[in-house]
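Q: Given only this backbone (812 positions), what sequence would you predict?
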């Protein structure tokens, strides 16, 4: 006779279905009565790691912060950095980041020189260089246009003309005395004989007697030698005059630039690198005095815009590459778009006459240079997605210097007019944020990673639901209200947020540490409070915000429920069927997940193939699901095949499943279907099942308990609640229950039920209403129990298979 099972012993009590925030914890009228959050909550391990990483100033002790999005990694590191710097300054440790300037390199113009200057000196040096150039543009033309300068040049010019004229007069006089004339033409000088004071023609010369011609030619050749000697002296005279002119220009230039440069030398006497540059610039100026003496219009090319003009005074320009003059403390750079240029700087170019030009003033700094002497914060995913940046960053960490170079050269492409600015030595701490999976991959496959990021700060997604943390959560809500200019929350509103925080992590004893989504809910609750003309945000507004958010996202879930209600997707929620169980699965859509029932069926028959997973055979199941199915064979063998071979073939199928199935949370459901098929006991379709199982028949916890229960409840509600429906979960998942209030209300009214089980035997009793039956000392089970019927059927299979094989052997 079948034993009637009392299901009350498996029923989860009402108070365990959801945690309600106790009112005595929140001892305030509204959040305006409490202080805003001053520190971070629930991340002590991560904060300790950050403090350690910041304090150890050694090579490789950079920080890698891992955790889910919204756990406060960025806000935490910024706040901890601020506090760390303040603490160091309170101890007398001052941060004064240096300025870095690029200047013209006179020996190698394509390799601009870098100058390291004290904080604030870069800007003053650039300003003083502009003043110096302005002074030179004024003083040099003034000096070269002075009366004294012009008089000295005129005296030298007159002396040159006098000496030139004297030489030429001497030639003329001597030639006339010899009846000759010196003719000067572009082709050179020629000596021509005279007749009666006039040049002799060729015919007249040829008509002369030979002796006379010979005498004239002798005098002419002698005179030509005199002419050549005179012209040689005149050439030396011109060189002498040019040297004197150059000397005058040099002395005038020296006079014009001495005072401005001496002022610069005195101003920067403590900076040897600046002094060296100024000395080279002084010599360069003396060689380019003509640039200052020309009118400005002569330095421009007609038809070109100012940006296209050649800058003749580029050597006097200072590029303040990194200006830290306005920074108090070390620089903290957060680079949200770490592409190559934003990270390592770039060399700009301008188009001119069909080509591209560049100079030291067009070198721009990147985040690495700006963070020198301080801290650089990056998102690892963005770094890895930017081509070449990760390798470039590692090279900077290794060499402790950064060079501004064109990425085209880095990837082996040609770059127009390449410049190679001198590299900058860098010393800074890198703080990287990212997912733990990326950290593990880099740690495994990048041999340099561990040496460069020795400190890991792991941010948890949940925290203990202690009284202290709940009070801190209330302070966090107050901070959000202040930051976003929101209405205050009353006690019920804060309680609603805390309850949602517990549901978000699926644990009554924990609270969510993902403050980003929590802040979103706070903002949305404020909207609904204002819509209702309320002066305060209450629990009703929080609940409405949650409902509305689900409504915006549950279109797919609604469609599935509708198809189940219409019968397109076949799921029974009433009656009893052999070998058929309602399993539960979770659909994860990223920001939203929901549960739904799946019909799972099993058919058993004679054979030796064991449990056949139809999903696996059709390549629709994942490895974890396959493992869960294989465990079933182990359980069946251990439970029922101690005194006989397991002569069984069983096929399991997720009905109407056309996509992949993964996870082992339905393994107990599949086992119930097999046991029902073997025992021919009917399974209640009003009860849905979730839970994995091990080879000993122990039910193991699963994820998504709330979504699964609510998903089946919604289907039952759509098809009609009967008071018999419910869900069976592993007993370990009771602490994970944070069910919706409508589900809790239905349970309270007896319209829905939640059962918890520890073993397969307990679960089969709930599903069939028949005792599972405990094994006796002789290995048998009480008659009429589920295990008895299963064992009996398996014994029959074994006997039939033995007879079949014996008969087959006789025929052979």
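A: Predicted residues:
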């Amino acid at each position: 006779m079948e034993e009637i099972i009392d299901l009350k012993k498996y029923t989860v009590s009402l108070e365990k279905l959801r945690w309600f925030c106790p009112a005595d914890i929140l001892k305030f009228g509204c959040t305006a009565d409490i202080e805003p959050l001053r520190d971070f909550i629930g991340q002590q391990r991560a904060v300790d790691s950050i403090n350690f990483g910041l304090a150890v100033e050694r090579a490789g002790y950079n920080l890698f912060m891992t955790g889910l999005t919204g756990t406060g990694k960025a806000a935490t590191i910024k706040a901890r950095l601020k506090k760390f710097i303040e603490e160091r300054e309170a101890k007398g440790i001052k941060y004064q980041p240096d300025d870095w300037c690029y200047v013209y390199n006179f020996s190698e113009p394509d390799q601009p020189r870098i100058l390291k200057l004290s904080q604030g000196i870069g800007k003053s040096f650039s300003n003083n260089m502009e003043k110096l150039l302005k002074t030179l543009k004024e003083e040099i033309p003034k000096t070269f246009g002075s009366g004294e300068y012009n008089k000295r040049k005129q005296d030298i010019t007159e002396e040159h003309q006098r000496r030139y004229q004297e030489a030429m007069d001497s030639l003329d006089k001597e030639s006339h005395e010899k009846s000759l004339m010196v003719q000067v033409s572009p082709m050179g000088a020629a000596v021509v004989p005279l007749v009666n004071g006039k040049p002799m023609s060729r015919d007249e010369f040829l008509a002369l007697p030979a002796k006379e011609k010979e005498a004239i030619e002798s005098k002419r050749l002698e005179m030509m030698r005199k002419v050549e000697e005179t012209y040689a002296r005149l050439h030396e005279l011109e060189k002498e005059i040019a040297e004197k002119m150059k000397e005058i220009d040099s002395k005038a230039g020296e006079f014009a630039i001495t005072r401005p440069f001496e002022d610069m030398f005195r101003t920067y006497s403590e900076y040897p690198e600046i002094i060296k540059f100024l000395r080279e610039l002084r010599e360069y100026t003396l060689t380019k005095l003509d640039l200052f003496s020309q009118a400005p219009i002569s330095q421009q090319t007609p038809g070109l815009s100012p940006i296209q003009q050649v800058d003749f005074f580029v050597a006097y320009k200072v590029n303040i590459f990194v200006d830290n003059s306005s920074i108090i403390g070390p620089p903290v750079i957060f680079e949200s778009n770490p592409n190559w240029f934003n990270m390592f700087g770039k060399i700009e170019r301008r188009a001119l006459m069909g080509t591209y030009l560049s100079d030291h003033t067009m070198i721009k700094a990147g985040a690495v240079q700006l963070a020198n002497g301080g801290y650089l914060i990056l998102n690892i995913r963005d770094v890895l997605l930017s081509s070449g940046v990760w390798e470039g960053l590692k090279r900077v960490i290794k060499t402790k210097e950064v060079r501004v170079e064109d990425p085209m050269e880095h990837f082996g492409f040609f770059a127009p007019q390449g410049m190679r600015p001198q590299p900058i030595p860098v010393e800074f701490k890198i703080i990287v944020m990212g997912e733990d999976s990326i950290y593990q991959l880099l740690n495994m496959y990048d041999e340099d990673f561990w040496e460069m990021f020795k400190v890991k700060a792991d941010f948890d997604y949940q925290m203990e639901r202690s009284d202290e943390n709940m009070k801190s959560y209330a302070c966090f809500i107050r901070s959000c209200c202040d930051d976003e200019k929101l209405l205050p929350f009353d006690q019920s509103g804060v309680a609603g947020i805390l309850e949602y925080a517990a549901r978000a992590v699926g644990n009554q004893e924990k609270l969510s540490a993902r403050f980003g989504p929590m802040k979103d809910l706070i903002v949305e609750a404020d909207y609904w409070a204002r819509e209702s003309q309320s002066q305060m945000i209450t629990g009703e507004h929080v609940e409405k915000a949650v409902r509305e958010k689900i409504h915006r996202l549950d279109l797919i879930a609604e469609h599935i429920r509708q198809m189940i209600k219409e019968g397109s997707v076949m799921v029974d929620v009433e009656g009893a069927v052999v070998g058929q169980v309602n399993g539960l699965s979770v659909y994860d859509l990223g920001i939203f997940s929901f549960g739904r029932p799946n019909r799972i069926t099993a058919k058993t028959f004679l054979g030796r193939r064991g449990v056949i997973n139809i999903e696996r055979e059709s390549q629709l199941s994942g490895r974890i699901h396959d493992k869960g199915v294989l465990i079933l064979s182990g359980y069946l063998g251990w439970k029922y095949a101690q005194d006989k071979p397991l002569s069984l073939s069983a096929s399991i199928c997720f009905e109407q499943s056309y996509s992949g199935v993964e996870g082992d949370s339905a393994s107990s459901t599949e086992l119930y279907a097999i046991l029902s098929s073997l025992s021919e006991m009917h399974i209640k379709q009003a009860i849905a099942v979730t839970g994995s199982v091990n080879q000993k028949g122990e039910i193991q916890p699963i994820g998504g308990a709330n979504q699964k229960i609510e998903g089946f409840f919604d289907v039952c509600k759509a098809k009609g609640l009967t008071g018999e429906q419910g869900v069976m979960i592993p007993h370990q998942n009771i602490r994970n229950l944070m069910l919706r209030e409508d589900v809790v209300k239905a349970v309270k009214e007896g319209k829905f039920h939640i059962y918890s089980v520890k073993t397969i035997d307990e679960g089969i009793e709930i599903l069939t209403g028949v005792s599972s039956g405990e094994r006796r000392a002789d290995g048998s089970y009480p008659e009429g129990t589920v295990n008895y019927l299963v064992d009996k059927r398996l014994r029959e299979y074994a006997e039939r298979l033995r007879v079949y094989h014996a008969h087959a052997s006789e025929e052979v």
